[in-house]
Amino acid sequence: MKKILLFIYDSFAEFEIVLFTTALNQEEFQLVTFSTKPAGETVTGVSSMSYVPTLTIDDIDVNEFEALVIPGGTTHPLLTHQPLHAIIRAFYDQNKTIAAICGGPALLGAAGILQEITFTASLTPDDHEYNDVMTWDNKLEQMLVVDRQVITATGSNYVQFAEEVLRRIGSVPEDEQNPLQYFREPSMN
After folding, report:
1. Is there a contact between 164 and 144 (Cβ–Cβ < 8 Å)?
2. 50-51 and 43-44 as β-strands: parallel, antiparallel, unpaired?
3. Is 120 helix (H, G, I), strand (E, B) or coil?
4. Are 133 and 125 in contact (CB under 8 A)?
5. Contact 50, 43 (CB under 8 A)
6. What is the DSSP letter of 141?
7. Which residue, among 34, 22, 14, has the nearest Cα to 172 in the 3D structure?
8. What DSSP character marks residue 119?
9. CA 127, CA 137: separation in Å to the nearest integer?
10. Is 65 exposed, middle or buried (0-12, 13-18, 19+ CB in 10 A)?
11. Of 112, 97, 92, which is closest to residue 165 (Cα–Cα)?
12. Predicted TM-score (pTM) of this structure
């Protein structure tokens, strides 16, 4: 079974990743959560719901995982967390899929990745606390950007983000145009 690593932290935006986690083929993929907090300590998402991560950052062996997913939220408190940056960088250096949405790409910047790729994010130079890690010249004003093995999206584009991540990891066929069509348009079904 392939493993997908999901980083959760205080203020992470659950809505940005819930379609991805819902649609992930549970027979082929295991979703594993981790945080920078000590074992057993809860993480509180933007909705005020609490979560107990499966692993701590010290438990991570990048070789065990196919991909890393980083939801948005208030990431600036994590911009100096070197062990987290090392894990993110290891995924990148091993050509593993990395998917970051909304404010999540700031952590890619802190890991030195945004200097090497084009990306998008729900951040601008007006978000001053992120300016030291963001490579604004590489930011594209697009809803979704895929560069090398890195997928980035703005926060409101969580459907397209989920679809692209699912395609990249092989959970849905690459040529399937709208695998999450059910969530795109309301219906009576």
Report:
1. yes
2. antiparallel
3. coil
4. no
5. yes
6. S
7. 22
8. B
9. 15
10. buried
11. 97
12. 0.96
